[in-house]
Amino acid sequence: MSELKYFKTVKEIPREDRFAKGHRLCAGCGAAIAMKLAMKALRGPTVVVNATGCVEVSTTCYPYSAWAIPYVHVAFENTAAVASGIIEANRILNKKRGRKLYDVIAIAGDGGTFDIGLQALSGALERGHNLLYICYDNEAYMNTGIQRSGATPLGAATTTSPAGTVIPGKPQRKKDLIGIAAAHRIPYAATASIAYPIDYMNKVRKALEIEGPKVIHVLTPCVPGWRYSPSDTIKLARLAVETRYFPVYEVENGRVKITIKVDRPKPLEEFLKLQRRFAHLLKPENANVLEALKRSVEENWERLVKLEESGVII
Amino acid sequence: MTQVERLAFMGDEAVAYAVKQCNVDVIAAYPITPQTIIVERLSEYVANGELDAAFIPVESEHSAISACVGASLAGARVYTSTCSQGLALMHEILHAASSMRAPIGMTIANRSLNAPLNIHCEHGDVMSARDTGWIHLFANNVQQAYDLTFISFKIAEDPKILLPASVNIDAFVLSHSVEPITPITDEDAEKYLPPREYEYPIDPDRPITYGTMALPDTYMEFKMQFKEALDRVPEVFEKAVKEYEKISGRRYWYYESYGVDDAEALVIMLGSVYGTVKTAAKRLRGEGLKVGVMGLTMFRPLPEKELVKVLRRVKAVIIMDRAYSYGGLGGPLYTDIIGVLYRNGIRIPAKNIVYGLGGRDFKLDEAEAILRMAEKGAKEGGFETHVDWWGVKR
Q1: What is the least distance, in Å, from the CA of B102 to any CA of chain A?
Q2: Which of B187, B213, B292, B385 could bridge across to B259 with cysteines, CB 3.0–4.6 Å?
Q3: Domain range spanning residue A92?
Q4: ipTM above 0.95?
């Protein structure tokens, strides 16, 4: 594997794929890009543990597998727990029987992380296993047909938070996953975007170098779920950052650092208008929901800036 | 066989001692009464360096069994323990553990299920896990709880099997009773259970995809292979108990029995009540009543052939269940046995006694009454009812 510690340009990204072609994810799938990039950022022998979800069902349909490294799927809500078992088994078998050590990366979607898998994740973070946990967040239960999750943003339409005449989309805001992860006082937590591959891949690599539990939260646009043209995936991922909708930052030993600065944000509408899940928010009757979404985006950014400037440990 | 000193142990302590001697690599467990002492002792063994294992203090039973599956696939010898609500919370992953062919050793301190909340003995917990494809063994006393722990790992990890196995010990009756046991030596334990060798461990040099999705065109084939692994358990079990007898002097079989060779009336059961019914049967034999008692050691896979050999010889059978299949025909063991009778063409009266739910005491005179009832059924060629809930206040 690569001797390179951190990537400076895309030219340094290895050609070798450990997440292979031929998987069954949708054209333009953001999660597929997130998987491919993360698998190019490994530092050595690695095992992937994956929750039930889009990536799982689309990459491991017997007798095919898109994974060129060991891959384990057990269920939906227990990825962090399965990973805990593998990590501890590897550690003790290394000690007792000289087995080779490997990195373990747990991968789950937002449903498997923000909601049903949150308990297992919290337990694993608290116990302090040497684990990298990557959440690919497409902001709803996409695998089961676009139902709302704890990661669905305020106002977004899903099949269980439809844009009705009385209730216009999801009434609640998105959970702060990195806030929850950082509250466990883990050494490293970060958000990332597939539109900024060098930043994302270097975060994966950095996390792998750090001993203990690490969480990376990567936003992955979803063509059928967000309802946009498959050619706009990277554009949307970039707009999410440029509008400050999805701030890209890291929390190292509790200290916040915004890694993609956005000094002059684009209007949020630029991001929203490309997606039909937000179409109703741009209608005059839902101006108050749009306003609330904008306010939450602004508040979140300001909070991060203040945390970064003050150096306060979160 | 080396002579060793006898030790006085609570059931839970005896199990923990056996698990230590099995030299397990990974323990992931969550405390639940009355299994707690097992995980406490194991934590102590690990904390004091008496057992070189990773102890994962998980945040729930669901995570306990999930961590066990991961660790087992990684090639470790893996142990957990639970009961009741904890086993119910594990349920989803019990299926995954067996279908992914992940050997795991588990002690279930059989306890009733909420509601109403009750922490005492019942087999309703393991019966809800009956069809998960685990091997389920039952101990009648503390010595068996200790011995079956070794035997369960021996079967579970056999390359022909690769399935998880539970050893069931009655809540409090066994988990908290102090009995003298004769342990095997550490050397014999290591000889019996050398470090686990697994052909397909998680290994970056040999990447394997574990836990794939299988569509309707392949799913049944996966399940058939898994069923066939369970079908192979008897041959491996017979070898495992023979080998264990060599080091311990104690002989195990699919069941324990008393008086079955010439019995006309038979009573079948699971768990610690065997001792009570056997004592009662001895008394009645003194009166000349031809009664026999059978306590199943192996519940899953159900040892049909062995059961048939005994059932063919008797004239009536009572099946005692410490659980009930609500909405069904009776207790789970009862429905198994009447199935065995029917499909083997044995036409004898069979009756179900449902007893001891939620830890209700079951005493010697009650055992005597049930044996007499069986004897009467054999004489008269029938029973008045199919199922009785024993000792329920009206």
Answers
A1: 11
A2: B292
A3: 10-310
A4: yes
